[in-house]
Structure formats: structure tokens, C-alpha cells
Amino acid sequence: MLSGADAVLKAVEAPLFWLGAAAAVWLSVCALYRLLSGLRVWILGNGRLVSPAALGQWAVVTGATDGIGKAYAEELGRRGFSIVLISRSQDKLDDVAKAMESKYGVQTKTISADFSSVDIYSSIEEGLRGLEIGVLVNNVGISYSYPEFFLSIPNLNSFIDSMININITSVCQMTRIVLPQMVERKKGAILNLSSASGMYPVPLLTVYSASKAFVDFFSQGLQMEYKSKGIIVQSIMPFYVVTKMSKIRRATLDKPTPERYVAAELNTVGLQARTNGYLPHAIMGWVTGSLFPSGVLRSYLMSIGLSQRARHLRKQKTG
Ligand SMILES: NC(=O)c1ccc[n+]([C@@H]2O[C@H](COP(=O)([O-])OP(=O)(O)OC[C@H]3O[C@@H](n4cnc5c(N)ncnc54)[C@H](OP(=O)(O)O)[C@@H]3O)[C@@H](O)[C@H]2O)c1
Fold first, then answer.
1. What is the 280 CA–ligand 1 centroid distance (Å)?
2. C-alpha dist (Å) from residue 315 to 153, 204, 319
3. Is the CB of 88 under 6 A from ligand 1?
4. Read out DSSP for 116-163?
5. pLDDT score of 6 more than 90
6. Catalytic residue flag (residue 261)
7. Confidence class for position 2, pLDDT limits 50, 70, 90
8. Which pairing describes strands 82-87 and 133-138: parallel, antiparallel, or unpaired?
């Protein structure tokens, strides 16, 4: 004779078994899918998609004279794109253009514009008129010179304007200028440099982090709107890359040179609408985004920001 509890256990035994089995199958299928798509992206890649034949003859890169932007310009030039380089200083633009023409034998065009202003877009539009633009890299961006509490940011008023104009307005306005002809030709790729700092709030870099979250949302929404018209829009979210902005000088596995980062990132175009762009960064993105409880992550980022801020202020005092 079964007791009441035994009878209940007996009754739920079979359903629980099948529920467990279904969950195990589901988790295995998900893990297998992740593994296969990981292999597709990081081992096979989609390197040949980004070519003038597939997308259009010209590539436009903002912030093209240094760091990640310069690496995009060079890699796209190596792939045979003619390049429009846009940055602030004409001297630097001329140097990069000359180097690219002699290295890759490609046509270049330079437009000098300061993205901290908003009255530059009619002259950029004029400069791009008539070009068949296959790729737009919205790369230009600025960050904090050191982590700081919002109200203590030096020259806060102009800092806010510059950060929003350079990091946000440029992405929307450049897209407004270039997208119509991509839609007309039913092909083109818009690569937007967000940041891993846009994946979650990064305290003491709050304005930067929020501006990069904007770029991420803008890219995701735009991709949904224009996917069916043959346009690729990608949100790119790097962790540290060795550049002037990051102030990191020595490359390591998790802090690549811009060249290594860009070569890996271009393999993901057309495969990932949101990407960390580089396998070690994708692993870091998965760990921080999926494994860490968000409260723990925010406290951790706050403590890192505080210690970097303290180090900077100490150096300023002694130096
Ligand atoms: N480096 C990283 O670790 C990292 C990580 C995540 C995301 N990102 C993002 O990647 C992008 C590129 O960063 P980066 O590290 O390569 O930066 P970078 O080394 O500082 O280079 C920035 C480029 O933008 C140009 N630029 C700066 N301010 C400008 C302005 N007001 N008007 C026109 N051009 C301007 C610079 O030209 P000038 O020579 O005229 O100054 C330079 O060519 C940014 O959007 C950044 O947020 C970088």
C-alpha cells in the first residue's frame, strides 16, 4: 500500500522525467546551435562579402586618420575599395591618403570635417555626391580623458555637446546621407562603431557608455527596417583595442592592434548584426553579458572606474 506522498511522487515521476529529458534536449540543441554558429562566424567567417564587387566601389570612413578608423580604411583599400577618408585635420588626411594610394593603388578622396560641429553635413553631402558607396564605417568617436562623476567632468557643458555630436549625431547624419543610394542599388553595408561600454551602463564613463548604447540601438532598429532592402547594418562592440583613445600601447591577446581587430571584424559582416568583432572579445562579451549578475557587474565596473580615476588624479597632482 503506497502512502500519500509516495502516490504523489509516483504520479509526477513520469511527467518530471519527460520534462527533464525535454529540457536536456533543448539545452543540447541550443549549445550545438551556438557552437555551430560560433564556428561559422569565427572559423569560416564571411570575409569575401566585403568587396567592391558585392557592395559598391567606394567606402567612406569617419575618423579615418588614426586607430580603428585608419585600420578600416587600410583593410578596405587592400580589398580594392576606393576610399573617402573623413577626419578633422587635412595634413593627417593627406598623409593617410598618400600612403594608401601608393600601398594599394586605390583612389582616395579626403574631406576635412570636425564632427563636434553640426553644420558640416551639407559639405560632406556635396563631397560624396555621385559616388557609388558600398560601405560606410561610422567610426568617429571620443571618450572621457579619465573616468569621472558626471557633475565633475571638466567643461561639462561643451563636453556634452561634443560627445553627442561626435558619437551620436554623426552616425545618424552620415546614415541619412549615404543610405538612400544604397537602398536604390539594393546593396550596401553600414558598420557602426558602438563599444562594449554600450552593452551595459559603465559608471564614471556614463555619457560615453550611453552614447554607445544609442549607436547599438540605432543599428539594431535600422537593420530591421532595411534588411529586406538588401542593406547590412552592423553594431560593433569592441572591448579594448590598442589606440590613442584607449591609451593602451602594447597589444595582447585580449587587447589587439586595430589591424588585427578590423581583420577579424570584417569576417563577421553579414553573419552578426551585433558583434564584439573579435573572438576573445566575444568570449568577454558572453561572460560579462550572460554570466555576471548585472548588479555585480555594475559594482565591479564602478570600482574599476574609481581606481582609474584616483590614479589619474594622483598623477595629475604629482606631475
Ligand atoms: N580603442 C578602443 O579600445 C575602443 C573600444 C570600443 C570602441 N571604440 C570606438 O571605436 C571608434 C574609434 O576609436 P579609436 O580608439 O580608434 O579612436 P582614436 O584612436 O582616438 O581615433 C579617432 C579618430 O577620429 C578622429 N576624430 C576625433 N575627433 C574628431 C572630430 N571632432 N572630428 C573629426 N574627426 C575626429 C581622429 O582624427 P584626428 O586625428 O583629427 O584627431 C582619429 O582619426 C570610436 O567610436 C570608439 O568609441 C574604441
1. 22
2. 17, 18, 6
3. yes
4. TSSTTHHHHHHHHTT--EEEEEE------SS---GGGSTTHHHHHHHH
5. no
6. no
7. low
8. unpaired
Contacts of 15 (CB under 8 A, 6+ apart): none
Would you say residue 304 has pLDDT above 90?
A: yes
**Domain locations in the chain as residue ranges:** 46-318
CB-count exposure of residue 32 (10 Å: 0-12, 13-18, 19+): exposed
Residue with cell 573579435: 278
* pLDDT tens digits along 106-164: 999 999 999 999 999 999 999 999 999 999 999 999 999 999 999 999 999 999 999 99
| Pairwise CA distance, residues 235 & 224, whole Å | 12
- Homologous superfamily (CATH) for 46-318: NAD(P)-binding Rossmann-like Domain (3.40.50.720)
Closest C-alpha residue for ligand 1 atom 39: 65
Query: Is the shortest distance between the CB of 206 and ligand 1 below 6 Å?
Result: no
